[in-house]
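## Example record

The block below lists the input lines for one assembly entry, exactly as stored, with component labels intact.
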Amino acid sequence: MSSPTPPLAEALPTVGFIGLGNMGSGMTRNLQAAGFPLVVTDLRRESAEELIAGGARWGETPREVAAMSDLVITMLPTPKHVAAVAAGAEGLIAGLPDGGTWVDMSTSVPDVLEAVRIEQAGRGLHLLDAPVSGMSVGAAAGMLQIFIGGDATDVARLRPVFEAMGDPERILHVGGHGAGYAVKLMINQLWFSHLVATAEVLSVGVAAGVDLGVLRDALIASPANSTFVSRDVLSILDNGDYDEGFAIALACKDLGLSVDLARSVGMPVELSSLVEQIFRRARAQYGDHAGEMTPVRLYEELLGRDLRREVAA
Ligand code: NAD
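Predicted structure tokens for the full assembly:
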């Protein structure tokens, strides 16, 4: 008697991906490694070469990507870029079938998806915001933290896709449409505030004659500790690395969106506005492509020396 034929493994959905930059390149590599067929596009075709060698298809336009995929992910710099990719005859909305799915993982605001939801009402589109934390290193490692705003059924259905890019323990459904964007903006706001505050106290302490390593150890052991002091600042203190994997132009974009969000809900945010201005000063001084931690250099210049820890050989 022949044994019953095992059921065919269910085919993984084809993922369309638009935006293969610092973040998107790592995220797509991990989707591909997890077995998801990919259709990709970017303004820079060369950014897709490795993926295409691995079997991904190229879409000439966002419309083509959407039409060739079961769901589309965007990972783009700013809300303007997201709107540009979505709109028009060659935009992704034109390529999505009725009932299609679009997940925007950019750090953005709800306006673009909200406008689509209103304009395309009746087409049954599934739209989610799912921005991420974890830097380009986390994107490359498939260990992003993901904050999802949208319907619970969509989140559950798309979980295997998110798990290919993120840490399963930190893929969070944070609320309805727009909640993902809001959570992400608040995380960045707080982290950038920690960055400025840390640069300030390290510089003043060192100027007052305290050894940098001793000062940092004391902060870590105190109630003033933070992840920035205990972990993230080390890339500067030990390696002089201000994280060019995240451009200060994008950090300024996030801070602007965060202050705008506060304005839209009627909250005065004196501290957030000040942090935004300090970041804008650093951007003007060091250029758009300088790393997100470059504001620390403003304090280093005032101090007259770099903040570097002497690491025992
Ligand atoms: P990036 O500038 O490195 O990449 C963006 C990519 O989008 C580029 O390759 C660009 O060519 C492409 N693009 C722009 N317009 C396009 C269009 N019309 N059609 C197709 N492709 C287009 O940016 P990134 O650092 O990868 O960041 C992407 C998003 O993720 C941003 O919203 C950022 O704030 C957020 N983010 C970044 C980091 C980080 O550490 N880099 C961390 C968390 C979140």
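The first helix runs from residue 22 to 33. The mean pLDDT is 95.
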